[in-house]
Amino acid sequence: MAAHLTLLDRPAGAPSPLTSESEVHFLCVGRDRWSIYDRRLDPADPAAFLGRLQRIAGLFEVTFADPARPRVWCVSLAASRAEFVDRRVPGRPRLRLV
Q: Is the pTM here over 0.70, yes or no?
């Protein structure tokens, strides 16, 4: 079974956690579907993959690459982009639908 690293367990030399929404890149892979990548890394690098996003019935469903993070639904693309930014960094509050 593969071990999954958390933000605190990253090895030396690994990129730091995302601190800005500008570091999150959306790559359209189909109608109302996107793959999400860390803009600081080459998209071909598996470490750059952050998750997937799809629009369903007017909401945006975020599925993270980290299986420890639960799926999230957002009301806008901007809110879904903010979900990938490190939560320990102070920022504006985000609407989370459960």
A: no
